[in-house]
Amino acid sequence: MSIEHLINTNYSKDVLGEDFEQCTLDLKDDYEGKVLATLVRRKSKIPTFKAVLYIHGFNDYFFQKELAKRFNAKGYNFYALDLRKYGRSLLKHQKMNNVRSLLEYDEEIERSLDIIRSEENAQVILMGHSTGGLILTNYAGRNLHSEKFQGIICNSPFYSFNLNSIERKLGIPMLSFIGQHKPDLLISSGFTKLYGYSLHQEKFGEWDYSLTWKPHKIPKVNLGFINAIHQAQRQVHHHTTIDVPMLILHSSRSIYTKQWIDDVKKGDAVLNIDDIHKYGKALQGDIKLCTIKDGMHDLILSPLPVREEAYKQIFLWIDLQYGK
């Protein structure tokens, strides 16, 4: 039996319109009950056997239409996954982002890759932003010699908590340990709402997206989620090998402020870019690190001249690795 008959690929129109389609992935029930993920697709009008699978970050979902169109124009079919308990996939009985291990995401990643391959996409590049970058680095490091993907692009990957040394060395390990035994205890996410202000049209940004699915004020997170992130980061920190070409992009500086300043739109207001560089450089394999001057945390949501540079570097790397 062919893979097409094993997977539900009934696409319907997506909320983004403009030729975006989506299909629902019914997943195994977990500790909260029913679980699903959502695969969004926009196919290139250029005949192609190439594709990208994009995974969003924390407090996020896929809405970056421009990113998809850029890849389409370069001859790539574009797919994006709204992970379980985020965006299109969040169900009423679920706590947003509530997972106890990033390995839980393997199910929807594998299902999505199988669907993409069933649609005759022979070359697949994985792309992840922030927590999505951590998820994909972790996934690739555990899936060496896979035939399902041929490269990885990480946009400001979440390789370390943006905290002081005492909080990192003592606080996070303690919270992670508690999270293994009391996963449903809640704690502040610690992320500034100013980052959301820098993005959304209703404040200081240029983008329109759902504030229900990506709110400015981030809800508290479960300690089980803190443990999941901590365990994945520990893997990245300790000699992870990646056996496909990998591009890691990050801003030229981090921004620290408790009040709105225009510089929030000229740097990474979420992560410490030195951590991204440090742990990205420590990965074993064909790894290229690229600094984007004045880039925001999500580089492809930066002001136009900055994101144009990000796109330039992404497609230069792709052409070098895979040809035009």
Report on the architecture of this protein:
With 324 residues, this protein is α/β, with parallel strands linked by helices. The protein has one domain: Rossmann fold, CATH 3.40.50.1820. It has eight helices and eleven strands. It has a nine-stranded mixed beta sheet, sandwiched between helices. Strands 8-9 form a two-stranded antiparallel ribbon. A hairpin with a 2-residue loop joins strand 2 (21-30) and strand 3. Helix 3 packs across helix 6 and helix 4 (165-181) packs across helix 6 (223-237). It starts with 11 loop residues before the first strand and ends with a helix. Residues 1-6 have low confidence and may be disordered.
Give the overall form.
globular
Rg measurement, Å:
19 Å
The tally of helices reads 8
**Number of individual domains:** 1
Mean pLDDT figure: 95
Portion of residues within helices: 25-40%
Overall strand count: 11
Percent strand: 15-25%
Give the SSE layout.
Layout: E1 12-13, E2 21-30, E3 33-42, E4 50-55, H1 65-73, E5 77-82, H2 106-118, E6 123-129, H3 131-142, E7 151-155, H4 165-181, E8 186-187, H5 194-199, E9 221-222, H6 223-237, E10 246-251, H7 273-282, E11 287-292, H8 304-322
Parallel strand pairs: 4-5, 4-6, 6-7, 7-10, 10-11
Antiparallel strand pairs: 1-2, 2-3, 3-5, 8-9
Outline of this structure?
With 324 residues, the protein is an alpha/beta fold. It has one domain (3-163, 233-322): 3-Layer(aba) Sandwich (Rossmann fold). It has helices at residues 65-73, 106-118, 131-142, 165-181, 194-199, 223-237, 273-282, 304-322, and strands spanning 12-13, 21-30, 33-42, 50-55, 77-82, 123-129, 151-155, 186-187, 221-222, 246-251, 287-292.
